[in-house]
Amino acid sequence: MWNQLETGFGYWNVFVWLFFFLIVSGFVLWVRSLGRMDYKRNTDQDEIYLSGNEVPEDGAAISVPASSSYWGFRVAMEPLYRLLDRFHSGNASDYAGYFVVTTALIGLLILL
Predict the structure, then answer these.
(1) How many whole angstroms separate alpha carbon 72 and alpha carbon 110?
(2) Looking at residue 76, what is its pLDDT?
(3) pLDDT tens digits for 67-98?
(4) pTM beyond cutoff 0.70
């Protein structure tokens, strides 16, 4: 009953999967055992490293606004954003048209 399940595309064997999970579990435990043995919880090892500076109690003092998070990415991609802004009209029927044209192009590429 639990040995093998015929699916039409192959078979599903519970013992093969159990063996697979045992191997994966053994590998994960082996990787975990490679960790540092000198780690001690609730010591200085748990402290946040902030480039050698003291970590303030209030996290708002060191927060970074979301607009600054990807500043370099936004600046580097700015020409693309300007190009995309030309297509941005706010009209949903325009976007549906873009979707249809893009789908047609992808379908054409698949057929060729």
Answers:
(1) 36
(2) 93
(3) 787 888 889 999 999 998 988 888 899 999 99
(4) no
Dihedral over alpha carbons 26, 31, 33, 38 (to 10 degrees)? -170
Q: Which two tokens stand for residue 61?
A: 């003092």
- The DSSP secondary structure of 36-71, one letter per residue, reads -TT--TTSGGGSPPBTTBPPPSSGGGG---HHHHTH
The structure tokens listed for 64 are 């970074």
- Residue 59 pLDDT greater than 80, yes or no: no
> Is residue 44 within 8 Å of 35, Cβ to Cβ?
no
Quote the CA–CA distance of 56 and 97 in Å, as a whole number.
Answer: 52
Please answer whether residues 62 and 49 qualify as being in contact, where contact means their C-beta atoms are separated by less than 8 angstroms.
no
Cα separation, 11 vs 3, in Å, equals: 10
In degrees, rounded to 5, the angle at the alpha carbon of residue 59 between the alpha carbons of residues 53 and 64 is 85
Q: Give the pair of three-digit tokens for residue 8.
A: 């039409």
Helix (H, G, I), strand (E, B) or coil at 17: helix
